[in-house]
Amino acid sequence: NAGVTQxxxxxxxxxxxxxxxxxxxxxxxxxxxxxxxxxxxxxxLIYYSVGAGIxxxxxxxxxxxxxxxxxxxxxxxxELAAPSQTSVYFCASSRGEQxxxxxxxxTVL
Amino acid sequence: xxxxxxxxxxxxxxxxxLVLLRCNYSSSVPPYLFWYVQYPNQGLQLLLKYTSAATLVxxxxxxxxxxxxxxxxxxxxKPSAHMSDAAEYFCAVTTGSGGSNYKLTFGKGTLLTVNP
Lengths: 109, 116
Description:
The structure holds two protein chains of two kinds.
Chain A (H helix, E strand, L loop, with lengths): L3 E4 L2 E4 L5 E7 L5 E7 L5 E9 L2 E4 L6 E3 L9 E3 L8 E8 L3 E3 L3 E5 L1
Parallel strand pairs in A: 2-11
Antiparallel strand pairs in A: 1-3, 3-8, 4-5, 4-9, 5-6, 7-8, 9-10, 9-11
Chain B lengths: L1 E6 L2 E5 L4 E9 L4 E7 L5 E7 L5 E3 L5 E5 L4 E6 L8 E8 L10 E2 L3 E6 L1
Parallel strand pairs in B: 2-11
Antiparallel strand pairs in B: 1-3, 3-8, 4-5, 4-9, 6-7, 7-8, 9-10, 9-11
């Protein structure tokens, strides 16, 4: 099992550009999550999904969108990148325990 | 609503000394509590969890935590620190049904430094 995989590992965006952060899991988990981690702030939940076709907002959803067309994939979309979205993004999946991916470090300049 | 407070953003100990990382929670219903560890440039890994069974919970790498309802605390301890324990530690709470990790709320983290 690869577990939870995320691509890319690093990305630099210009203000106003868009991009999709990819997340995939091969554990057949129904629950999937996107978090952002900022220094000294812990992890904040952006969006989550309880199964294919079902998503909902977390604590900090503004500026992001998600979709869940399959059990395995849960991409996060940034439409108009802003400097405030500079962060490390983690995807996770769970049936019980949450398993985390290695993260994507995004810088918006 | 639920919340977590981790006292001390940075804790420094000597190798072989006791490790104590503090976590207090706020929850209107019985909580499920977790400790995660994050090594540099990696994702989070579960250390241990409390899901309303035994109040003293043992985890990986020699860590344990005790749930104290009267003090709303779930402090993480390890009797003897090892250099490899240097990492950031996060306490998290959920009131998800069945003890699942549904919608965790994380503390801000405590960076543990271990000095030789």
